[in-house]
Amino acid sequence: MLAVLVLFLPPLLTRTPFFSVFDFSLWGKDWLKLSGCIRRGELPCDTAGISKFPLGYLLNSYYVVVMGARGFNPGRAIGLLNTLFLALPIAFIVLIRGLRASLPRSLVYILAILLTAVPPFYIFGALEVQSGVVIGIFISSLVLMNEDLRRPGETALAVLLFITALLLPLYKDTNTLVLFVGLAVAGTQAWLGKANHSTEPESAIHRWRTAWSLITALSVGLAISATYNFVKGGSVLPLAYLNEASQTSPRPAKMLEFFAGTYFSPNGGVAVFWGGALYATVWLLRRFELVISRTGAFVASAVVLAYSVVLSCWWAPFGWDAWGDRLMLPAMLATVICLTATARERSPTPNDRPRRRDGRESDAPLRRVARVVRDGAIVLIVLLSLHYTVLSYYANRDAVMMASMFGGPKCRQMGRDLGPGEATLGLAFWRSDSYYACARERFIHVPVYIGGRPRR
């Protein structure tokens, strides 16, 4: 644990923060454009140039404008807000578990985040951090509500469930899927396990109240999003996204390739980006005599799977400008939050005692081979993940990011094709062979260290 702090805190605190511009150039002035449109009485503001992004981005745009008036540049302003968001899971764990019980869980959470590229690359600029925290607190509250309806923090959990369910669609319309997946999986797990005294009328009534509360919050959130869509585009639907999807959605075979790349790309796929953090989370929780909640792990896994399937249908599953898989950041950050927040103290039971196993069965060749393969795969993933994380902290971030996106000949060729291609094909360029060749090249790119000072 100390090694993680010594290795990653110094570069994080001493190096110039990396302002991850990404989509900021598109949504950064949304508040100024919308307020100007309203002052001129030009509703709907479909000609004001407001970005396609949801209401959460507009609120961040307003925040950047307010902080800019106080002398904060956009990167510092968003970095401060994202840091506060990353601290919210710790406050959540303290609120639900109490101060003493929250200490090991909070430490595991902090170390897990440090073992990813989130601090060096994504705190300053990426709203996916905020979305991930909201999803994480939502699914954690959902799991904890199902585990013990009589816990002291029950009222707080109900309030947090309502707030986070309301916020989910404000960051991304497809986050609505998170609510339904989480609710369905958690409810099914509780029903199959006959948990929480499910035969008692009070428990059934409580679960129905929770479900209706979530549906109400989601409906309000969707209504707010629809209103914003109408104000900026003249339709309650996110027409810009729908139009983009209709012209750029990949073919089924390409979707499968994108799905595989989402998890296994050495260029920041889920296994490389989050492998070390997830392994450290599980290992450290066990060291602290904490047990992973099966329901929590199952709900988080279902959300990750749903997220990855949806993103595989998008033309840029990693995000166009990204270090690693930026678009999977919300689901994976939520997974780390859920695993730490829902972990429970180990209680000694007869089932915990070591059981005798038949020597011949335990030493069967197939079992030994399977164990060696499993352990070897874990070691390989952890080593690749540590390599990726060390690069994220110590390399020239501008240089390694550009190399990961345009370092190969096919991506450089796509860059040359981009101007005339978009002029001729429009959005359909993102279904062209030129782009797909670049996307595949990005998936198989292996990042290496590039030194030097970043250009500022």
Question: Helical amount among residues, as a percent range?
Answer: over 70%
Shape: globular
What is the oligomeric state here? single chain
Span of the ends, CA to CA: 33 Å
Instruction: Please provide the count of β strands.
Output: 2
What order do the helices and strands follow?
A: HHHHHHHHHHHHHHEHHEHHHHH
Describe the main β-sheet briefly. 2 strands, antiparallel
Separate helix tally: 21
Major sheet: arrangement of strands: 1-2
Mean pLDDT, rounded to whole units? 88
Could you walk me through the main structural features you see in this protein, from its secondary elements to its overall organization?
The chain has helices at 2-14, 24-27, 30-39, 55-69, 74-97, 99-114, 118-122, 128-147, 154-171, 176-193, 201-233, 239-248, 252-264, 270-287, 294-312, 329-342, 359-362, 365-394, 397-406, 409-425, 433-444; strands at 290-291, 344-345. It is mostly helical and 456 residues long. It folds into 2 domains: 30-346, no CATH class; 395-456, no CATH class. It has a two-stranded antiparallel sheet. The mean pLDDT is 88.
How are the secondary structure elements laid out?
Layout: H1 2-14, H2 24-27, H3 30-39, H4 55-69, H5 74-97, H6 99-114, H7 118-122, H8 128-147, H9 154-171, H10 176-193, H11 201-233, H12 239-248, H13 252-264, H14 270-287, E1 290-291, H15 294-312, H16 329-342, E2 344-345, H17 359-362, H18 365-394, H19 397-406, H20 409-425, H21 433-444
Helix pairs in contact: 5-6, 5-8, 6-14, 6-16, 8-9, 8-10, 8-15, 8-16, 9-11, 10-15, 13-15, 13-21, 14-16, 14-18, 15-16, 20-21
